[in-house]
Write a structure and sequence with these properties.
Shape: globular
CATH superfamily: P-loop containing nucleotide triphosphate hydrolases
CATH class: Alpha Beta
Bound molecules: adenosine monophosphate
CATH architecture: 3-Layer(aba) Sandwich
Helix content: 55-70%
Radius of gyration: 16 Å
Distance between the termini: 11 Å
Order of helices and strands: EHEHHHEHEHHHEH
Structural class: alpha/beta
CATH topology: Rossmann fold
Number of helices: 9
Number of domains: 1
Length: 187
Amino acid sequence: MFILLLGAPGSGKGTQGKILAERMGLPKITTGDILRAAVQAGSDLGREAKKFMDEGKLVPDSVVLGLIKTELDKPEAKEGAIFDGFPRTAAQAQLVDQTLGERGQRLSHVLLFDVPEEELIRRMRARAAQERRSDDTPEAIKTRLQVYQRDTAPLVAHYAQRGVMHRVPGAGTIEDIATEIKRLIGR
Ligand code: AMP
């Protein structure tokens, strides 16, 4: 089963994705984590990605499409996975559709994390104090929210047409939201 987590930065995708992945025994593929690890390691990928990440911009598709393809082709992701942080652009969505389609697979569920902007900003600021991520600065937070609206929010319409999308409410405790997700996907 392939499940896509869609939502703005700070909407809780990472937290809920971790719970869901453990509960369902599925791998979680998180492009943000992979890119941050590449930056830490100082690899070619990390060097290319860092500037965009620090500014809160998307790493270009020319870099990310290859990364996504590699992840989807890994043996552990052949039967199912949770996608966290991608697709974020139309080209990425097309690659995911095409790769799964060629294997006779499709997304089973798209979970849309619906959180008001003031709450997103509050959460990202709280996280900045804890994790010291280089892209949780006020300017980068603003850019990331704008980029979400411009490049990623249009994917909502793309997936809504397929009847596999569920809206996950942002309000509530972590446990409440996890329970709601369980109800929405029926397992
Ligand atoms: P995240 O942890 O998902 O908020 O990602 C942190 C940053 O990594 C983003 O602001 C982007 O710069 C980059 N990033 C993560 N995933 C993607 C993606 N699918 N496409 C482009 N850039 C990405």
